Each structure stands twice: as structure tokens, then as C-alpha cells.
């Protein structure tokens, strides 16, 4: 059983775990520090993070080049307080008592870095709002 002082945990989910969910997890990690636990996964993970996403995030000082897409598991959902979906549809398992958010965002797949930048910036904005809602101080 978790206490009110427990660190909140957030899971970001998209189909390939190669773009949106990777960016969101990286921003939450950087901005929330040890005030939040971060996970990301995909229902059908790609082999690697989208190179345009890696480049767009490098511009913010975040290096995603060593990250690898991970498969979505029921355990990851159960271990999370908040589940943020970004286009995984019916593939996301539902567990009562979890907070689910659905962020409708353009898919960076097949896009160049120019098209990824506004998606990246919107994800950072939403991550900052989420941190405020969770009561986690931005670092």
C-alpha cells in the first residue's frame, strides 16, 4: 500500500515506444528528477528510437541515442500511478484505480526533425503540467 509521501510513478505508452513516449519519459525524468518514477513502453516496440526524435531531443540537451524501445507489460501498468497513452488504442491494459490520460499528439514516425520539434515542445509543455498536477517540483 502506498503512502501519500510515496513518489508518483508515470508510464508513457505509444505503439512503437520510439518517439512520443520516449520524449515524454526523458522530459519527465529530467524535469522531475528523483521526485517521480518514469517508465515508457510500446504495444509493438520498434527496433530503435526514431533518429529524428534523437536529434530533436539532442537540441534540448537530452541524449536518447542509448535508449531502446520496450514492450508494454501488465506489470508496468500495475506498477504505475498514472498511465499516459499516446495512440496505443485498445492495446493498453486497463486496471481500476489507475489514472489514465490520453495525449493526442502527431506521430513523429517518418517525419524529419523539423516536424518533430513542435511535437517535442508540446510534450515538454504537457509534462510540465503533469508534474504540477502531481505536486512534483520541476528541477
TrEMBL record:
InterPro entries on file: Ptyr_pPase, Ptyr_pPase_sf
UniProt domain Phosphotyrosine protein phosphatase I: residue ranges: 8-133
Name of the molecule in the record: Arsenate reductase ArsC
UniProtKB keywords: Arsenical resistance
Organism this protein belongs to: Streptomyces pseudovenezuelae
Amino acid at each position: 500500500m502506498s503512502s501519500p509521501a510515496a513518489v508518483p510513478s508515470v508510464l508513457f505508452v505509444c505503439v512503437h515506444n520510439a518517439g512520443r513516449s520516449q520524449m515524454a519519459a526523458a522530459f519527465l525524468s529530467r524535469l522531475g528528477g528523483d521526485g517521480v518514477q518514469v517508465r515508457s513502453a510500446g504495444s509493438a516496440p520498434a527496433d530503435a528510437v526514431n533518429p529524428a526524435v534523437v536529434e530533436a531531443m539532442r537540441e534540448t540537451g537530452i541524449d536518447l541515442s542509448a535508449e531502446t524501445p520496450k514492450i508494454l507489460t501488465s506489470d508496468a501498468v500495475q506498477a504505475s500511478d498514472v498511465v499516459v497513452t499516446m495512440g496505443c488504442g485498445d492495446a493498453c491494459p486497463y486496471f481500476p484505480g489507475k489514472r489514465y490520460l490520453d495525449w493526442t499528439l502527431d506521430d513523429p514516425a517518418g517525419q524529419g526533425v523539423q516536424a518533430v520539434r513542435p511535437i517535442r515542445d508540446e510534450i515538454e509543455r504537457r509534462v510540465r503540467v503533469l508534474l504540477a498536477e502531481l505536486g512534483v517540483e520541476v528541477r
